[in-house]
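hi! just following up on the protien thing from before. the input was this:
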Amino acid sequence: MPQGLGELPPEGREGLGELRRVARVVLLDPRDRILLLHGHEPGDPSDNWWFTPGGGVEGEETREEAALRELAEETGITDVELGPVLWRRTCSFPFAGRRWDQDEWYYLARTSQTATEALGLTELERRSVAGARWWTCQELLQAHETVYPTRLAGLLRRLLDEGPPARPEILDTEIV
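and the predicted 3d structure came back as:
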């Protein structure tokens, strides 16, 4: 079992408020392409980035349940095989007029379903998610766009070359 929230190293929590529990999905298709969502600051589409599907844990649901729910809401993809937690990251960023401090767990998932349809977006997501795209590792390595987590291209390359890590890798804290 991965480390719990209370077991995050102190250096990963410095300067952060209460951490929002988040489950993200590294979704791969049969061609090993990764699905990323294209987001932007509400009201400013020029301030944009790419990110993995996922979001906050709600109520008593597990992170696994949150990962699958968020994936379905944001992409319409429900035919998935959820795998292990690959990475964990603490991050902090401004978005929609507030600061978000998060403890993110990235789950590996595979699917053969590549058509996406975002039917369950929240009002904020409808104002800030511009679409989805499947990326090859090579496209990610050559991308000039902002992608989160920032080392995703290299992490994906290692995942495809070596398979999932034996235990979740703790990524560097990202404060934007």
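Helices lie at 63-75, 123-128, 137-142, 152-162.
The chain is about 20% helix and 40% strand.
cheers
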